[in-house]
Specification:
Layout (H helix, E strand, L loop, with lengths): L1 E6 L3 H12 L4 E7 L2 H8 L7 E4 L8 H11 L4 E6 L4 H9 L2 E6 L4 H14 L10 H7 L12 H10 L5 H8 L3 H15 L4 H10 L6
Parallel strand pairs: 1-2, 1-3, 3-4, 4-5
Helix pairs in contact: 4-10, 6-10, 7-10, 8-9, 9-10
Length: about 210
């Protein structure tokens, strides 16, 4: 039986999710929390979950802080992010903090079930937010990729992509124009066969250019 915990400050949504999970074969909801701080308190009194369904926007201790705490203190708990935030910056941050999957709150129950199954059986779940080449990169963890050669400037760009800087801020840091950064980004998308900044970040992490 796969043990699941939920951390979300919206009780109505949380209860609905708990119902979907509990009615799915092979899963048991061990506890629910309002935020990260509440989760840590309940973790001391309840069985440790195998998978944590984690919201990002919460009071007291949000999803980013909670994921960081889990990574440092309970890394065996697999995090599935459930959020309304679909921007690259949020996805990248949660991946760096150890998230194994990322789905939106308006996803259908079947998507949630699939995500739970994939994380339980394969260790990760990929969808339209985190997909394609990322599956390949994530499955190759620990091995050096014999991919295209990356120049010094491209390496610097990839490192900066792993930060929270906007593309304009990356241009300022590199001392080049925003148009030059756009060209660099397009070239890297083509070279690394990805369509998003998340893909660039996963490539950088996979190849030791940036650390999680």
């Amino acid at each position: 039986m796969t043990k699941v915990a939920l951390v979300d400050d919206h009780a109505l949504l949380r209860n609905g999710l708990a119902s979907v999970i509990s009615n799915s074969d092979g899963y048991q909801v061990v506890f629910e929390a309002d935020n990260g701080k509440h989760f840590i308190e309940l973790l001391k009194k309840n069985p440790k979950p195998d998978i944590l369904l984690l919201d990002i926007t919460m009071p007291e201790m949000d999803g980013f802080e909670t994921a960081q705490w889990i990574k440092a203190n309970a890394p065996d708990i697999k995090i599935l992010v459930l959020s309304m935030m679909d921007d690259d910056k949020s996805i990248i941050r949660m991946l760096k903090y150890g998230a194994r999957g990322y789905i939106l709150k308006d996803s259908k129950p079947e998507v949630l079930r699939t995500a739970l199954r994939d994380i339980s059986e394969r260790g990760f779940f990929f969808n339209e937010l985190v997909n394609g080449r990322l599956v390949h990169l994530a499955s190759q963890t620990g091995e050096k990729n014999n991919g295209p050669e990356i120049s010094e400037k491209e390496t610097e760009f990839l490192k900066l992509c792993c930060t929270e800087k906007s593309y304009k801020e990356i241009a300022d840091t590199m001392g080049i124009t925003p148009r030059a950064v756009e060209a660099l980004r397009s070239n890297m998308f083509e070279k690394l066969q990805t369509l998003s900044r998340v893909g660039l970040v996963m490539y950088a992490i996979r190849n030791g250019i940036a650390k999680i």
